[in-house]
Amino acid sequence: MAMAKHVMMRVLMMLAGYLVAVLVGLVAVAAIYAALSSLPNAPAYFDIMGVSPIAVLVVPPLGMFVYFLTIVVTGLQTLIFALIAEFFSLRNALMHIVFGAAAAAGGFFLIWPSSAEDIDPERWADIGIIAAAGLVAGLIYWLIAGREAGFRRPLSQF
After folding, report:
1. What is the DSSP string of 47-68?
2. What was the pLDDT predicted at 30?
3. Residue 26 CB: number of other CB atoms within 10 A?
4. Quick one: pLDDT band at residue 154, thresholds 50, 70, 90?
5. Phi-psi category of 150—alpha, beta or left, where left has phi over 0 and alpha has psi -120 to 50?
6. What is the mean pLDDT of residues 67-91?
7. How far apart, in Å, do the first and last CA atoms of the chain sit?
8. pTM of this prediction exceeds 0.70
9. How many other C-beta atoms lie within 10 A of the C-beta of residue 84?
10. Using only C-alpha atoms, what is the Rg of the chain?
């Protein structure tokens, strides 16, 4: 019974960590775009990305759509990474941060149309920004759920 309770608690911590990490990751995307839009020679669409958080706050259904879209496109790879961390009791912060960046970049690749003419420097900048936000999200996930990862507990805790 104690083992089932521990596993259920870990699953709930994984879910809570993921949901909070997605929210913080979206805030990080907006903050990074806002900061980069103030740089000289920044692409014009960075200004739009810097203003979009205001639109999300003014129109809450738009914010919920963006949040749930992010959950849909990053959910599977994050679940795979989280289960690997739990089964092997991987508690390294750097590993969770890299997993967060990989999951965010993977989600970006799922929704971005791919064609030969789409490969331009601005797209690579977007991938870097999304991956940087994934780094932040991975750190938040580690703080909530990753520091104590592991479905198995030492026998002394039963």
Report:
1. HHHHHHHHHHHHSHHHHHHHHH
2. 84
3. 18
4. low
5. left
6. 91
7. 9
8. yes
9. 13
10. 18
Residue 25 near residue 133 (C-beta atoms within 8 A): yes
CA atoms of 103 and 132, how far apart (whole Å): 11
Question: What is the percent of the chain where pLDDT is above 70?
Answer: 84
Q: 131: helix, coil or strand?
A: helix
- What is the average pLDDT value for the chain, to the nearest integer? 84
CB atoms within 10 A of CB 38: 10
Six token digits for residue 124: 């690579």
3-state secondary structure of 43: coil
Q: pLDDT digits over 103-144, tens only?
A: 999 998 888 766 555 566 667 788 899 999 999 999 999 999
Tell me whether residue 115 is exposed, middle or buried, using C-beta atoms within 10 angstroms of its C-beta: 0 to 12, 13 to 18, 19 or more. exposed
123 vs 109: CA distance, rounded Å: 10
In degrees rounded to 5, what are phi and psi of residue 154?
-60, 150
